[in-house]
Fold this protein.
Amino acid sequence: MELSEPGKKASYLTGAAVLTATVAFTKVIGAIYKIPLFNLLGDEGSGHFNVMYNIYTLILTLSTAGVPVAISRLISEARAQDRPRQAARYYSVGLWTFTLVGLVGMAVMLLFGRSFAEFMSDPKVYLGVWVLAPAVFFACVLSPLRGWSQGRSDMVPTAISQIMEVLCKLVFGIAIAWYLKSQGYGVHIIAAGAIAGITIGLGLDVPILAILRRRAARREPRPVTLDKPMSRMETLKKIVWVSVPIMLSSSVLNIINLVDSSLVRWRLGTGAGLSEQMVDVLYGVYSKGMTFFSVPNAFISPIGVAVVPVVAAAMASHDHKAAKTTIESSLRVTNLLAMPAAVGLFVLAGPIFDVVFPGSNEHGPALLSMLGIASYFVCAYLISNSILQATGHEKLALVALPVGGLLKIGINYILVGNPAINISGAPVGTLACYVAITLLNSVFIAVTSPERPRFLRVTIRPLLCSLLMGAAAWGVQGLCERRLLPLLGGGRLAGAVCLAVTVLAAVFVYAVLIVLLRALTKEDILLLPKGEKLAKLLKIR
């Protein structure tokens, strides 16, 4: 399988574009879903729902962090080595193994639902735990199905399953919650009904992905050579060997963030000497900033998912030049997306808080500015982590993550506990954490890659475009506040109009700069659908 040949080259950017568009769609549907749902549930019911939703998020992380990536990489490698029977065995072993794991997990949640709810400090959510129990089974079955399609660089099935999941969450979740409320049930029962939409969506995903996989398998040409696959036990060991470090790396970061959340609140009270009410206020405004902080990385994650099978196949074929080209392209595209988002959040933090969170604590804009810069390094960490996974060095990520986590905890302990700094120290710890992880991962990539990626080359032009865009956004926002805001009569709506004008102007300036400075290469564009026509339109040679 020669990745460099036209027609055979797996377009990871095409797959990334599909998943990125899916992320954008699911983000919008998610917002539409939560606003009416929280109004329906009220404060108490919303609290129960959030506890249940956190359980779902944990399930989703575990089911998508390791197994699909591992099976995706292993299948891609086997296909590149012309071992179709081994690729098929990776899928079959993964499917049967994780079907069994899913059944066990579902049984545990059904048997110990009440104990689990008490552990979450909300005994009333046991019904939600029972409702989510089948979701554990469905998520485990979906993992090898998604991994099989991703290993073939086909991201469409994954995108379809994500869309199905979010639509079911919207339609069935709200419909069931509305019906239960109309029947006079308690809010914890209504919340459990709302969470049922997730289980229904995952359940419908299973047959859909199974049908798509079967159709895709029928379209594949019969193999010319018949390889001798490893035994099922050896295959299982290989899947576990690759997937466990990926799962651990995701779990370590989740644990660090959980510990850090508790630490920040504790140090605001015991170290900075603030009252319980002020701790709630400051941590609340910090949490508001975190909602924007997490947005850019949602659009980078699909690039990481898509790049793994392509780089893995190139490495398996010893086509180191193709691997280097794909790695550099993924880094460049990440920079082109993440850098302007970070600069935009830094420059426009004040207007964003005024429009989206009016009346918030005065610390909000400063916290968001620092978190904006940190958001870039989260994106850089995600793509570097995916590159290490693709090249077979996923265990090195387990070295970088604890270093960054301990740095974050140490800085937050010192700075947040300082009365003069208090909550302003929290984003500093977050920034230091991800800078350290990114730098270590970059060193690992440089040392382990047969052909070292040119990090500086893929960074300079996107950075220059982003900085110039930031300056333009700062100027336009200032002009709007002086001229347009008084003309519109002031207020939140007028501020929203000014912010929208600024964002549109910044997007236009950034697009022009990308073309003028040739920050996006023709190779990148040719990987996209209709890339040749797009390159001609943008006059990129």
